[in-house]
Sequence to fold (644 residues):
Amino acid sequence: MQAELLVEVTRGGAVESVHYGHVAVVNAAGELVDGRGAPGLPAYPRSAAKMIQALPLVRSGAAAARHLGSEQLALSCASHNGAAIHTRPVTRWLAALDLAEQDLRCGPQMPDDRPAREGLIRADESPCQFHNNCSGKHAGFLTLNKHLGGGPEYHEVDHPVQRAALAAWEEICDEATAGYGIDGCSAPNFRSSVTAVARAMAKFAAAPDGSAEAQLRDAMMAHPELVAGEGRACTELMRAAKGKAAVKTGAEGYFTAILPEQGLGIALKVADGTTRAAECAMAALLVKYGVLDRDDPAVRKRAWTTELNRRKIEVGEIRPAF
Amino acid sequence: MQAELLVEVTRGGAVESVHYGHVAVVNAAGELVDGRGAPGLPAYPRSAAKMIQALPLVRSGAAAARHLGSEQLALSCASHNGAAIHTRPVTRWLAALDLAEQDLRCGPQMPDDRPAREGLIRADESPCQFHNNCSGKHAGFLTLNKHLGGGPEYHEVDHPVQRAALAAWEEICDEATAGYGIDGCSAPNFRSSVTAVARAMAKFAAAPDGSAEAQLRDAMMAHPELVAGEGRACTELMRAAKGKAAVKTGAEGYFTAILPEQGLGIALKVADGTTRAAECAMAALLVKYGVLDRDDPAVRKRAWTTELNRRKIEVGEIRPAF
Fold:
C-alpha cells in the first residue's frame, strides 16, 4: 500500500483507527512542494473539483450573458446542505432560464440541513432535485447548455456541456484524464492524479483578477455558507480563513484547497474514502500553510479534536499523524 | 502498515477506495485457521463484544432470578435501532426491576429506526436513554447490579458490574486485556487481540446447550430483529443464516460471528473503522464458511454489491478483495 498515514483516531489513550491517503501541495510554478503517499496515482476528486467543472460556465460567456452574480457562481461550485438559502436561489435561477425542477438530472436527495429535513418530515413531503447537494452545479450546467444550445441530457459524457467540462479539466490539470465514473448526481467525474488536481488548484490560487478561475474562487470565499452550509467543514474553514483559502470537499475522502496569498494548491484523497479523515488532514494542512490558527474552533472541531460520547465524556481524539 | 486489503469500492471500472484490516477465524480447539493482517494486535471490539459483556448476567444467576426470557437476553447483546420493538421491552424490563430511565447511564441517542426518529421529530420530542442503541445492554447491567447489590454508577470500570464483565472477558478470550477505553454508551470497552476475540466467539460456537454462552448465542439467533433492526446487517444476515450464525457489529469497523455448526468463531477489525467494509468482509466470510449463499439478498446488499446513485444509475461496486 503506497498511501501514507494521515490521521489517527484514539480511544482510551490507544490508537483505535487509522486513515492512510495521498496529498499533493503544488506552487504557482506548478512544482510539487509537498507530496505524501502516491499523489501521482489517479483518483476521482468527486465534488472537490466542482470549481473546475464550473469553468466553462464562466469562460464561455454564459454566466455574463445571464448576469450571474457571485452567489450563483458560489452555488455552481457547491455541495450544499439543501437548506432554504440554497434551494430558493437555485429555484429562482432555473426560473430565470425558463426551466424547472424536472429539467435537472441530479436526482432528489434528503437535505442534510436539519430545519429543511425536519420540515419535509413534518409536512410528510419528499425531497426534490433542488435539495440535491449538486443542484447549483447542475443549474450552472443548464445555464451553459442554454448558451450552447445542447439537448436536455446535459449530464451525458458526450453532451457538449460535459465535453466542455472535460476540456477545461484536462487543460487546467495539464494531464490527460484516466477515464471517468458516474457521480452521485449522474454527471461524469474524471480521474486525474492528486498532483494534477493540486496543480489545477494552484492555477486557481494564482489566477489574475477577472479571470474565470478568480471569479469562481472569490465567489466561494465570499459566500462560504452557499458552498456547503451551517456546521459543515467547507463553510466553517472558509469563514475562519477570511479570504485566505477557498476549500471544497468531495465524496470518498477527497478535499481541495486554493490558497491565493501563498499561490498554493492542495489536493488530498483519503484511501478509505472517509470524510472525517479528509477534514482532519485538510484542517491540519491549512494550519501548516499559515492560513488558519491551530486553536481556531473550525480547526479544533476536525483536527486535534477531543471526542465526546453521548454523555459528553471524553473518550479519545482525532489527530493528524503528519 | 500490517493490515491486509479486505474490501475495494469501485467507480467507472476503477478502484476508488480501499479498506484494509485484520481477520481471525478460530476453531473449537482454539486454533487460528485463517488470519489476515495482524490479528495478534489488540483492538477495541466495541459493541461486537456485547455477548461477552452479557455473560455475567447469565452466569451469576441474575437472569434466571429475574426470569429473563430470550428476548431480554437478545436485547442485552443488541445495538438496536431504537424502534418501538426495542424501547418498549427495555422500558418494561426496567419497570420490573423497580427502575426507570434515569437509572440508565448510556445517554440519549436519536434512534436509527425511521418511524421512531420521524415520530420524535413530528412530536417535537427529544430522544431518551431508552432509544440509545445500548439500552438493552445497560438493562442487563442493571439486572446484574440488583443481584450484586452495587451502587448506581454501574458503568464505572471499578464497579462490581464492570469488574465481572472484565473477568468474563479475560477468561473467555484467554488473554489479559490491553487496557480499556470508554465506549459511546459510557461503559468500559476492553482491548484484546482480534485472535482472542475470535477465540471467544469459537467458545460461544462450541458451548454446550444450557450454558450461558449457548443461551446468549441462541437468543441472538432466535430474535435477529431485536439485536439490530429492520434493514440492518446483523438482523438481515442472521435471518438469512437461519440458525447457522450469530453475528454482531461494533463501532469503528469491528464485526464478530459465531458459527455453531462449524464450531468456528470469527472476528474482524477494519483499520479505518468503516462500517461498509466490515459488513462486506463479514458477509463474504459467512459465504466462505458455508453459512450463507453468495446470491442471498442479505449478502448481495453488502458484498459484490452494485452501487446505484440518486437516479438509480449503476456507478460501481463494493466487493471483497480476498
